[in-house]
Design brief:
The chain is of the alpha/beta class. The protein is built from 15 helices and 13 strands. Helix 1 packs parallel to helix 2.
């Protein structure tokens, strides 16, 4: 995958390559759009233009560097302690102002972030068609996750191109009255990204963010969802603390999210625990290396629910509902919520019961074959 920003001189008249704007602001969006940007750059009919909101500055920059993406416009909108409404209003105005001078033929957004929704809304206001990567995901619970469930539903009803990762996501869209002709089942672009980075790791060797002891089973946990703020997060931390107390051969690694509702709680609850490693969020190459080195993955992240099964890692979902039920249905993931006893039971059973473990690890990922970006770029080329 080449994401070199150097491009040959292009005729930008209306008869030339179609200008496709990519608007995003968080690390997960960058990971999932990087393969699409690369695929578009390989087609002479398309000219991708990248605008970032920097909704999550530090985490975004890690991915931009890894995939060699140099934004054409960096709005740098992140502020300390920003509210959802405050960021949304700044993003809508700033993205709209950027669009005024771009003469884009299409805008592409990804997923369920505030950057994605505001990017789509700004494009709508300027009558620019919108393509939505990862369209159709639903929990049908407006506050789980919040505000992501509302963001993705509203974005889908703005978009003209719906790139659904699975048949279930496409069915959700049809049920809501979205025109079937606008829906394209492509697979999830995160599979493209994971396979690309796995190949990089394979050529260069594992580079986990912390040394991995060969005689210990590593349990990696990522926790950041709003619905887990407060008491649920403390229960999850309590379960992990009990896990290492009862199992001397287990080590827990937690990349600690910078959110002020998350970091202080995790540090307070687990900062002094032996064999619990609290680390800064690693870059994506290191994170994939960490997943590859892990025995079990716990997460409330949507992206990690997709990434871990691609790597054959049993995944326990720290939520009460998920917009990615395909992993649960396929048997590569299981929902455990924030119930400490359930979390402990599932981790210990996976670590102690080889047959139960293989039942997860040997399942095929339901999220795609690694060619989603190729399909999306081809659809955009043919349509534009």
């Amino acid at each position: 995958m080449s994401l070199d920003n150097g491009r040959p001189g292009l005729d930008r008249r209306r008869r030339g390559p179609r200008r496709v704007g990519f608007i995003f602001g968080t690390r997960p969006e960058a990971i999932k759009l990087a393969p699409v940007i690369a695929a578009c750059r390989e087609l002479p009919e398309l000219y991708p233009v990248v605008c970032v909101t920097a909704q999550h500055r530090e985490l975004l920059d890690q991915v931009l560097g890894l995939f060699g993406i140099e934004p054409d416009e960096d709005l740098d909108l992140m502020q300390d302690g920003q509210s959802v409404a405050g960021f949304a209003s700044r993003a809508l105005e700033a993205v709209g102002a950027w669009l005024e001078g771009q003469r884009l033929d299409c805008v592409v957004v990804q997923g369920d972030t505030t950057s994605a929704f505001m990017g789509a809304l700004a494009a709508l206001y300027r009558r620019v068609p919108v393509g939505h990567v990862e369209a159709g995901l639903r929990t049908y619970r407006p506050y789980e996750p919040f505000p992501e469930e509302a963001n993705r539903r509203l974005t889908d009803h703005i978009a003209q191109f719906h790139f659904a990762p699975t048949g279930l996501a496409a069915a959700n869209l049809r049920t809501e009255g979205v025109s079937p002709s606008s829906i394209h089942v492509t697979g999830n672009t995160v599979v493209d990204a994971v396979l690309h980075v796995r190949d990089l790791v394979g050529r260069g060797g594992l580079v986990p963010p912390v040394p991995i002891a060969p005689d210990r089973a590593v349990v990696t946990a990522t926790i950041h969802r709003r619905e887990n703020f407060g008491a649920p997060l403390r229960r999850i931390c309590g379960a992990l603390g009990t896990l290492v107390e009862r199992n001397k051969g287990v080590e827990v690694v937690i990349p600690v999210h910078p959110n002020p509702e998350v970091r202080p709680v995790i540090v307070q609850e687990l900062g002094g625990c032996d064999r619990v490693r609290l680390i800064e969020p690693p870059n994506y190459l290191q994170f994939i290396s960490l997943l590859m080195s892990s025995a079990v993955v716990l997460t409330d992240s949507g992206g990690v629910q997709e990434e871990a099964p691609v790597l054959g890692k049993p995944t326990l979902v720290l939520r009460r509902t998920t917009e990615r039920p395909e992993g649960i249905q396929a048997g590569s993931a299981r929902m455990v919520g924030d119930v400490a006893a359930t979390i402990l039971w599932e981790i210990e059973r996976l670590l102690q019961d080889d047959r139960y473990y293989r039942g997860f690890a040997e399942r095929r990922s339901p999220y795609g074959d690694g060619r989603a970006a190729e399909r999306i770029s081809g659809i955009l080329r043919d349509a534009l």
